[in-house]
């Protein structure tokens, strides 16, 4: 069946671990007029997301787009899709029979209208079911924008030329999915064409979009890539966003001069890439009444000394500021009493059990009810914490539990508030983990198997001290900026 304007409803859920629901912080409830939309939502509302006849479900997002789908999207954006659907002339590609009758009409149209930008492959074939790459899809968008191969850019330089036009969000996707297509389409709406118009306005002129359609407003989360840092968050201009480790204990930790140096990130309307979960974004109302956007309960900030898109001068500043990333497996919290400690990606405290030995959890039965295992995979951690120190073990029930230096990580069921560390020193057996100091459990040392030596240099680089008021003092390394 022809790939039609069918839409997807995506349901997201977050399961931390079986039988254990962690408390929601004050940053988790959206307030006022705050709205957040995924690129899937926007592409769906504008009728730009093309799908097959059976794809009105979340599974569609994981499907890999084909040359035929890209060609149909190209025709839609150029305003020729209806013409192609009703095309009746003879002549087609040799492999047109791979698709149904309606799609064969589209292939015939492309065969007889090479000016639309779709030539066949070798031997008069089109290869309609072949998967496409980010480079190929950005080529499609650039041509829709009026830029030509051999004139404005060479195919080998497609990604760099696309980035110069603001098209970069899916460039690093090794394998494309329809999630990526949604993001690229919405990203492209604001791009400037060779005719010096936005694609959005040109789609309205071609009547692809109705005259009363609205370009997504407000702020946009973009995903930037760095060779050392990986993928991190920026705003729509490319300015980097940050997390503050002291927010794990108190989401209002940054006050006064701190906010001057680390301005708050906020917008009433937020657009996010399709691969992100809109439920992870929320609004924090601070004690002074100002509002701030948060991701997974971590408030988001700029750094005043980042002067241009792509600057990451605030990364690891003072050992308490880190670029905001979507894929942290663990984060670092900072307590006025306990110092640095490991948290999950939402800032919830993680503990070790002093009876455990490497690669083994001795917490079972009622113990695991009170100390739920951190069921996570991955090893993404802030700068200064060695990713190689994280792994998983398989518990007796078959579930995977994250480990640090071989030791299983747990929550405490009685931690009821954001930043709670009430499990620390419980029965002198349960403790938070300072990654710079942790060297194994008493049980492991007694058996002669302490923690593997990690490469964390967080403590050595950023040794904090506590003044008489219990406030952290950090030896700044970037002039007068304060934490």
Concise synopsis of the structure shown:
This protein is an alpha+beta fold.
Fold and architecture overview:
The protein has three domains: 171 residues, no CATH class; 108 residues, no CATH class; 132 residues, no CATH class. With 483 residues, the protein is an alpha+beta fold. It is built from twelve helices and 19 strands. The strands form eight sheets. Strands 1-6-2 form a three-stranded parallel β-sheet. It starts with 34 loop residues before the first strand and ends in a 10-residue tail after the last strand. Helices cover 19% and strands 15% of the residues. The N terminus and C terminus are likely disordered.
Show the helix and strand layout.
Elements: E1 35-38, H1 39-46, H2 67-78, H3 81-85, H4 101-112, H5 134-144, H6 158-164, H7 178-189, H8 199-205, E2 219-220, E3 222-226, E4 230-234, E5 242-244, H9 257-261, E6 269-272, E7 281-285, E8 291-295, E9 298-299, E10 321-323, E11 330-335, E12 339-344, E13 351-353, H10 366-370, E14 390-394, E15 400-404, E16 407-408, E17 430-432, H11 442-446, H12 458-461, E18 465-466, E19 472-473
Parallel strand pairs: 1-6, 2-6
Antiparallel strand pairs: 3-4, 5-10, 7-8, 8-9, 11-12, 13-17, 14-15, 15-16, 18-19
